[in-house]
Fold each of these.
Amino acid sequence: MASSPNEFLSYVLEAMSHRALVSARKMFGGYGLYRDGLMFALIIEDELFFKSDAENIAQFERAGSHPFSYQTKARRVELAYWSAPAECLESPSDMGDWCQLGFAAALRASAVKSRVRKAK
């Protein structure tokens, strides 16, 4: 497997390419991964995280994943992104399934934001 962030990013993008067109943008000291303009995953320090929400979090928990978090001066912050299960990095089929879970969560979050904007 890859050893540098750019190699890991290339590896992940190649694995994801079997299911959809995915692009990457630098952010947070890592990369945001986008499909159809929606961020559905991120890579931080050679670790892949997928977007999560109430509908898919149980699947991440069952897979032994953990949430992405970071420490500020005042507190620990957890984002709605959970680590990719190890098997998804080894199998294009599994990668596609987990990508779809993350993308579906991104779609749901986008729909909520859209409804809120329309209500204002």
Amino acid sequence: MGNEHLVFVPQLHRHMMQHRFLLAYRGPFSHDITMAMLAMSENRLVQEGAETGIRKKIFNVMMGCLENICSHPDATVTPEKQAMVMLGRNDNDYFIYSGNVIQNSEVPELENDLSRINELNPEQLRKLYTDLLQSLTAEQMIDSEAGLIDIARKSGHKIEFEFSPVDQSSTFFAMKTTIASAHA
């Protein structure tokens, strides 16, 4: 009947169910879309029965991930370079996957920042974050590693990350953040 091109829909649905994705979005990001994503995430977490403290952690980490995407806009974004975010869970954890295109020139500093953040214990993260807050102006905060530090602090886990070249000038930056559920 000519519906061969629809085969991927049930496959994608099974994959999303198997990995318990609660929310997935790929496309342009703006303030309105960010606010809608946060509201939809909150609604899905309430439906899932997530406890208030866990919902608050997830909300704050997701906000940090979305701010990270919005703070690295790429003027040459084409459909294949659009950012994405997904919220899911397994039996013990919730996870947020995010990804966006960055300039190749940003990769070394970002990789260095993330590696350094992942080496710190919770007390060291708190101190570094406090020191950054005291030393930077509001404009500098947007371009600093403070958002990544805050994500690591609030999630309580190391940030997993990967860089995949897109073309000669840009790279797709993928990040996974894990938040333990209260039942773990």
